[in-house]
Structure formats: C-alpha cells, structure tokens
Amino acid sequence: MNNVKVSFLNQFPNGWIETNPTTIYFGLIGDIDDCANRIRNNDPMYSVMRVDREQFTAYLIAGCLSVNPSADSYLVMQSKRLPFRKIVAKNESELDSKIEKFFIKLRGFVNDNKADIYNADKIEKYLG
User: Which of 39, 34, 16 has the alpha carbon at shortest distance from 124?
Assistant: First the structure.
C-alpha cells in the first residue's frame, strides 16, 4: 500500500490518505484543522476505496467531489461523481498501476472543476 500512498501524494501533495490492508481513504485536505468542524467527511473529495489484493480488484465505496450548486438550485452544494470504474487486474503490480492511473485522472478532474469546488476559497492551498 506504500506505492498507493506515494502515487496519491504525487498528484495531491497536500492531500490526505490513509490505508489499511483492504481500504484506502483519501481526500483533498491534508490538515484536519482545515476541514469544517474537524470532520474528515467534510473534505470536498472525501472518498473510500475497497481493495481486494487476493482477487486484484478495487472499487469506490464512497466518492464524489463537492461543488457549488447551479444558479437555479436551492441546494447548498452538489456533487460530481469521480471518474472511476471498478478496477480488475491480473496481479498486484498491475492493480497498483491502475490505481495510480486513477489518481492521475482524478487530478485532472479536480483541475477541471477547481473553480466550482465547494469552499474553494478556504482551501486554495490544497488545490495547487
């Protein structure tokens, strides 16, 4: 899982990631003090990925990017699905490689939506 951490932090150097043998938790905000009420789930990109290293699969349990709502909306925020499809690999190194490709694609997705991210003015240092 160290390869996964390095891959994530290469794309989001100020981001947050925690791993255990079966799960990867990650988000945009590295410092918990910058999350509203110090609650990790208030990160605009809080996500959870389940990884099965015996079957070489990975899928998102939870994951979206919180963005500002459209002008005609009454909502406080909206969410956009992350660009993720279930990962199926033949071995562990291919699994790690595909997860790394997802993080690269995720960086582009965040950059494309940077202006619309909810509370972007308060977390600008994480949007790099």
Answer: 34
